[in-house]
Amino acid sequence: MPSEATSSVLSNPTQKARPKVMGLNKRKLEDQRRQACRERGRAARRATDTHVLEDAERLLAAWNERQAKRLPMLFSPTIGAAVTAGYWLLWIRCPACRTLCFK
Prior knowledge:
Strand content: 5-15%
Radius of gyration: 34 Å
Structural class: mainly alpha
Number of helices: 3
Oligomer: single chain
């Protein structure tokens, strides 16, 4: 005896039986789109990282040059620029009491 679902589909003679076809895997497409977006972001960061590194090195070279010549300080590099340029040792000098601190 056929099931109700089968009999209801076949009971209409004008309706042709169609095989069920799987649709698009939306989750897989979304994962591929996210992965492509991540790759584009990584490539953009790699491109800007070299520019940021060059800028940080140039900034700290100018700072060190002005310090060596005892010229007036017109700017101060940020700690982030120093870390980016690879300077891991920090010297702090108090202009009032002229003490040095090494970190």
